[in-house]
Amino acid sequence: MADRCWVVIPAAGSGSRFGADVPKQYQLLNGKMVIDRTLSVFLHWEPTHKVVVALSPDDERFDETTLGSHPDVVRVTGGAERADSVRKALEYVCQQALPDDKVMVHDAARPVLQTRDLDRLWALRNLSAAIFARPIADTLKRSQDGAIQATVSRDNLWGAQTPQMANPIALLHALKTCSEKGISVTDEASALEAVGERVSLVEGPAYNIKITRADDLLIASALLEMLE
To answer: What pLDDT does residue 19 have?
Structure first.
């Protein structure tokens, strides 16, 4: 059997920083919902086995998506935090995963990624884990009371992106361990790091932006026009 990749998309968040009544994953981006664009990339990528989307229990908007009813899309109920949603999705995955399967966890609000980017990450599937990230280019400032407290060296600092790829069983174990020990994690790599797993860095594309605030939609729109 050919190598298979499960995809987990945590989409249970309200996106409060976006500042709108409609969560960012359901905003329209060049005529399509953000989450539909995200789903489309993986559903058009050959190694994808299933896409497991973790949704809020009171989510009524996913039924309005174009691809939510696709036969390779599975819905699970997410949790209060991103890590909770990913853990619940992985519990579904691990019930059916084969020993050599991998999982990619991807933000619902990163809709500009291309299948060729997935190919680059997938080429490293024999590693224990790997993520897309980019070296920090901006000068970093630590603030206090609205003013600069210090300038922080950016040497060897990377900004994490998604997808983040790992063995699903290993990632589920890492997330459960962090939860039991009260370790806060903001992405999958930090959970793997916490249990001693090696996570490799792959330079991701600059256009793989995450829609967090309203003006990010304008940037994503322009990027899609250039790429499509």
So the answer is: 52
Question: Using an 8 Å Cβ cutoff, are 54 and 8 in contact?
Answer: yes
Please give the model's pTM, rounded to 2 decimal places.
0.94
Q: What is the CATH number of the domain that holds 162?
A: 3.90.550.10
**What CA–CA distance (Å, rounded) separates 66 from 188?**
28
Beta-bridge mates of residue 5: 48, 102
Distance CA 213, CA 19 (A): 7
Number of helices followed by number of strands (H, E) in the chain: 6, 11
How many domains does the chain contain in total? 1
Q: What is the pLDDT of residues 42-59, one digit of tens each?
A: 999 999 999 999 999 999
What sign does the dihedral 113-111-192-184 (CA atoms) show? positive
Q: Show the domain range for 44.
A: 5-227
